[in-house]
Design goal:
mainly beta
């Protein structure tokens, strides 16, 4: 998702929502709970990733899917 972002090693902005939004790049699908976190699957890239309990800072419960987009931060 960060391909094409200049100087990505200096940071980027990640937008995410439980619902699709204009220009989203990835849809992560909930798989299972483990160690107080949640595994999600990015089907188009055949990747799984674990999201820690900090997920609850943004969602009251883990959503069935998370749509996200990475972009250059405003400086």
């Amino acid at each position: 998702m960060v391909d094409g972002i200049a100087n990505v090693d200096k940071g980027f902005k990640l937008l995410f929502s439980a619902n699709p939004f204009p220009g989203y790049q990835a849809e992560l699908i909930w798989l299972r709970a483990e160690y107080n976190g949640y595994w999600y699957y990015w089907e188009s890239h055949k990747l799984e990733g674990w999201l820690c309990p900090a997920l609850f800072k943004y969602f009251s419960e883990p959503p069935n899917k998370i749509c996200c987009k990475a972009e250059r931060p405003y400086l």
